[in-house]
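Q: what sequence does this backbone want?
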């Protein structure tokens, strides 16, 4: 018989080796983790050393991430008290080991996802559910398991898979659940091998691996290799496996129902506001419900609180069925991202200040120089950028679809809340600079750039909101809002455009001074929007200020001065000061012809305006050549489908109508309307005006049946865009009332 010490050492060594292999560690790896030498590990596993010290056992247990029962078994195996007895059996697991969690009684929706999981499992046997922490992956797996239990007469089992040691321990515990003879074997390996044999012999089981960490995929593959006959369902923050289901937040209506049900309240509007603010994230919704229950608040006051205290609210009121609140759920992911790839963390910080959806990758690449390092270099290198995105997708913190990134709005809020004040300002400033560099300059006459402007607009609104009344990057923000404002003017969104332009003027004057030429540009753009609001006195004031700045900066004969001359003249014409308007238009026309040439689009613009003035004054003989010349230039230079061409068609049709040439005017208006509907959109105010003009001509021709729907639609558009009291709205209303 071997000496007792040798036999005890061998028992301890076998158990230690079993745990090390279960954790997929070499002796060198365990030595590195524990701080012991490789020689010491080797000696312990060979059983040639007497009873290990308690401190050594603690170091090994911590390095192997053993649970309480496993630590106790290791201690027992190390003691010489087992003299002349068989090695101690492996202790039974906790009663809950391998048992699925209870069903969440408040679970709602996800019917399509549940059906898809069933289809994919039947087809291939394995499905991985992935998504952001708190999106409901575990709850979906629990729901599927409970609803489909009858499909699995051999059993349903639940394993924790966030760590290799936990996964191996839970897998070994199934030997007890299944009543296998090997359940009391002193080595986990024997228990697991018995479980795997049982799984191979029983085809109708479901095994859920919850919260699989990518680092533990090797352990999963070792113990649960492909080819097992049952079904394997995994949940993870990381997309993994060939068959996977990406989970997003609940639809707004489902989230609203959940809040009303959980809070036992009936304020649907407030519930919808809360659901939208929380992005339909199930954990956040449960947390909101827990807060409402604990505090006694109603949904309306909670919605108000979310507007200013969102991040703080997401760190408190942990739901009973969840281990931690929303904000702390993501802390580990944030920390890991920063350790693994600093540029990925910087990308997340930048995106936190943009709108959550469709963050344009191409704009980030093109304006990489506006971001600080190390993000700047990463944005400039597409492969490095892809690596950063891969890191963020590893933790489901971003989604990428082609040229667009998506970050959950709640993640954005928590990221912003995690940054120090100086960091918040730095990344907001970077977001402003990137957008300002990427937003097209003077987009009003460039409809080919409008899709890009429209895509960037939500991000402009985001940075403007984050900037508040502060002074973060005021120069860049002023430039950005000025460009966005003139785009909105071109698209007929006058209310938001006016707000942007008014703020742009204030910022440009603050940074560059009230006499700077850039201030004149912003003032002029604001004037356009004030004119659309029929605020002609204010429009005249800001445009005359712009003219004065340009005359002092550039002189009386500069093209910039000509622009202001032309625009001030337009306001004077609307105010009924025709003589003064004509003088300024003629000055502008002379400058533009001389400097830009007789066939330039800006020359055509002044010809059009001068022709319109002549028409208003009743001088059709002078108006016609101006309008015909303007139309010819625009068709040739801008193209037949440009909004400027449509304007000239519209104005020439007015002249022909007043000459009684109704049959000649009609095709011009029909063509102008088609261009505006196609380029500006069917609900643009200028499209509505063209519809109004065509309807008037049809009424003159006696076709009131065709004129009425055109006027009705024009009136509805103008009421919506300009308001019921606007002069153009009133004109369409009177025209409709006058139809017989």
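A:
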């Amino acid at each position: 018989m071997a000496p007792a010490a040798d036999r005890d050492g061998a028992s301890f060594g076998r158990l230690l080796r079993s745990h090390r292999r279960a954790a997929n560690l070499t002796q060198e790896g365990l030595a590195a983790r524990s701080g012991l030498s490789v020689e010491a590990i080797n000696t312990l596993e060979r059983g040639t050393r007497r009873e290990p010290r308690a401190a050594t056992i603690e170091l090994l247990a911590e390095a192997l991430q053993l649970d309480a029962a496993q630590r106790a078994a290791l201690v027992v195996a190390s003691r010489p008290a087992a003299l002349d007895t068989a090695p101690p059996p492996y202790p039974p697991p906790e009663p809950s080991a391998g048992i699925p969690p209870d069903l969440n009684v408040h679970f709602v929706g996800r019917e399509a996802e549940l059906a898809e999981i069933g289809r994919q499992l039947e087809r291939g046997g394995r499905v991985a559910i992935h998504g952001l922490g708190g999106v409901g992956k575990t709850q979906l797996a629990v729901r599927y398991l409970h609803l489909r239990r009858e499909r699995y007469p051999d059993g349903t089992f639940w394993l924790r898979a966030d760590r290799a040691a936990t996964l191996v321990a839970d897998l070994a515990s199934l030997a007890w659940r299944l009543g296998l003879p090997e359940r009391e074997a002193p080595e986990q390996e024997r228990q697991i091998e018995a479980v795997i044999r049982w799984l191979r012999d029983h085809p109708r089981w479901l095994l859920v691996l919850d919260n699989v960490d990518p680092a533990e995929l090797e352990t999963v593959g070792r113990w649960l290799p492909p080819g097992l006959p049952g079904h394997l369902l995994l949940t993870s923050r990381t997309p993994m496996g060939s068959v996977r289901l990406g989970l997003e937040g609940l639809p707004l209506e489902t989230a609203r129902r959940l809040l009303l049900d959980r809070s036992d309240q009936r304020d649907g509007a407030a519930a919808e506001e809360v659901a939208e603010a929380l992005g339909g994230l199930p954990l956040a919704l449960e947390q909101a419900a827990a807060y409402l229950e604990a505090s006694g608040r109603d949904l309306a006051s909670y919605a108000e609180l979310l507007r200013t205290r969102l991040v703080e609210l997401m760190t408190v009121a942990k739901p009973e069925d969840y281990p931690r609140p929303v904000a702390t759920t993501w802390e580990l992911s944030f920390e890991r991202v920063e350790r693994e790839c600093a540029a990925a963390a910087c990308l997340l910080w930048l995106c936190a200040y943009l709108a959550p959806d469709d963050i344009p990758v191409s704009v980030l690449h093109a304006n990489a120089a506006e971001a600080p390092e190390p993000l700047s270099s990463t944005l400039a290198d597409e492969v490095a950028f892809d690596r950063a995105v891969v890191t963020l997708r590893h933790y489901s913190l971003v989604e990428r679809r082609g040229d667009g990134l998506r970050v959950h709005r709640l993640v954005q809020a928590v990221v912003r809340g995690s940054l120090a004040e100086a960091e918040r300002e730095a990344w907001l400033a970077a977001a402003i600079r990137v957008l300002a560099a990427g937003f097209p300059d003077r987009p009003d006459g460039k409809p080919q750039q409008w899709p890009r402007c429209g895509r960037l607009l939500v991000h402009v609104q985001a940075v403007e909101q984050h900037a508040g009344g502060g002074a973060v990057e005021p120069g860049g923000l002023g430039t950005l809002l000025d460009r966005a404002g003139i785009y909105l003017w071109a698209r007929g969104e006058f209310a938001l455009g006016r707000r942007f332009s008014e703020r742009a003027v204030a910022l440009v004057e603050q940074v560059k001074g009230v006499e700077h030429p850039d201030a004149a540009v912003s003032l002029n753009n604001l004037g356009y929007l004030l004119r659309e609001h029929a605020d002609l006195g204010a429009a005249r004031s800001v445009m005359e200020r712009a003219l004065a700045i340009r005359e002092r900066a550039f002189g009386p004969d500069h093209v910039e001065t000509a622009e202001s001359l032309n625009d001030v003249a337009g306001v004077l014409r609307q105010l009924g000061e025709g003589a003064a308007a004509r003088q300024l238009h003629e000055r502008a026309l002379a400058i533009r012809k001389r400097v830009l040439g007789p066939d330039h689009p800006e020359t055509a613009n002044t010809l059009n305006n001068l022709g319109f003035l002549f028409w208003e004054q009743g001088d059709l003989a002078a108006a016609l050549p101006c309008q015909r010349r303007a139309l010819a230039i625009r068709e040739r230079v801008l193209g037949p489908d440009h909004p400027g061409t449509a304007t000239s068609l519209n104005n020439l049709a007015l002249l022909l109508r007043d000459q009684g040439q109704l049959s000649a005017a009609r095709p011009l208006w029909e063509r102008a309307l088609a261009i505006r509907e196609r380029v500006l959109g069917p609900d643009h105010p200028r499209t509505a005006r063209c519809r109004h003009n065509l309807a008037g001509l049809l009424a003159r021709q006696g076709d009131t049946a065709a004129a009425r729907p055109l006027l009705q639609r024009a009136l509805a558009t103008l009421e919506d865009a300009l308001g019921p009291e606007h002069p153009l709205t009133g004109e369409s209303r009177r025209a409709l009332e006058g139809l017989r």
